[in-house]
């Protein structure tokens, strides 16, 4: 990583406007077809960071997926940072460049039946959404809640969510919701 950072210092201008807008972003990545063992950067362990898990937003379908690993990074001519991610359960052919500010965050947490009282109107949640074409995890906001008595099978409350990407509203159960870390 230190070698890569020193290389970036040499080729990345300190003034982002110094690079013409038509120039492609600087790419310090390792090609997808490289052997797996060569794609893992050597990084020193930072205390406390090993417990963090992340999710990233795919540009292919707009859904959020767990990150298995961060393969490399690059700085765009705008100064923005992108990382190349391997999504959990996917192959190296599915690796994507993701903007860190807009598309990487701490992993959402599935809710237990006893935690339904933590969900409030207006909350941002990650919601499992199934359509005829695909099943994805999408950002949504809680629009209303119909609180119901729980039974032996768990929470029976109905949550009305509005998906952020298309503004469609849907009634869902708690089992489809994940909370955002605070």
**pLDDT averaged over residues:** 82
User: What is the topology, as strand order, of the major beta sheet?
Assistant: 6-11-7-8-9-10
What fold name stands as the CATH topology of the largest domain?
OB fold (Dihydrolipoamide Acetyltransferase, E2P)
Order of helices and strands: HEEEEHEEEEEEE
CATH class of the largest domain: Mainly Beta
Helical content stands at under 10%
- Name the quaternary structure: single chain
Name the structural class: mainly beta
Approximately what portion of the residues adopt beta-strand conformation? 35-45%
Cα separation of the termini: 31 Å
Unreliable stretches, pLDDT < 50, 5 or more residues?
1-43
Task: Categorize the overall geometry.
Answer: elongated
Number of beta-strand segments: 11
Summed up, the domain count is: 2
Strand count, sense and barrel status of the largest sheet are: 6 strands, antiparallel
Domain SAWADEE: 51-178
InterPro entries: SAWADEE_dom, SHH1/2
GO molecular function: chromatin binding
Biased composition (Acidic residues): 1-12
Task: Show the helix and strand layout.
Layout: H1 2-11, E1 54-57, E2 64-75, E3 81-87, E4 96-99, H2 100-103, E5 104-106, E6 109-110, E7 124-130, E8 135-146, E9 158-163, E10 169-172, E11 177-179
Antiparallel strand pairs: 1-2, 1-5, 2-3, 3-4, 6-11, 7-8, 7-11, 8-9, 9-10
């Amino acid at each position: 990583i230190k070698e890569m950072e020193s290389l970036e210092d040499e080729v990345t201008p300190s003034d982002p406007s110094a690079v013409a807008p038509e120039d492609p972003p600087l790419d310090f990545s390792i090609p997808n077809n490289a052997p797996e063992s060569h794609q893992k950067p050597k990084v020193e362990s930072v205390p406390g960071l090993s417990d963090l898990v992340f999710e990233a937003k795919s540009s292919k379908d707009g859904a959020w997926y767990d990150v298995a690993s961060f393969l490399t990074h690059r700085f765009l001519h705008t100064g923005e940072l992108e990382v190349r991610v391997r999504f959990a359960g996917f192959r190296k052919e599915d690796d994507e460049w993701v903007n860190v500010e807009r598309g990487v965050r701490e992993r959402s947490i599935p809710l237990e039946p006893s935690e339904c009282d933590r969900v409030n109107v207006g909350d941002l949640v990650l919601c499992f959404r199934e359509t005829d074409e695909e099943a994805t995890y999408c950002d949504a906001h809680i629009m209303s809640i119909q609180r119901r008595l729980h039974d032996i099978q768990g929470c029976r409350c109905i949550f009305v969510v509005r998906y952020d990407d298309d503004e469609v509203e849907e009634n869902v159960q708690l089992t489809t919701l994940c909370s955002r870390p605070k």
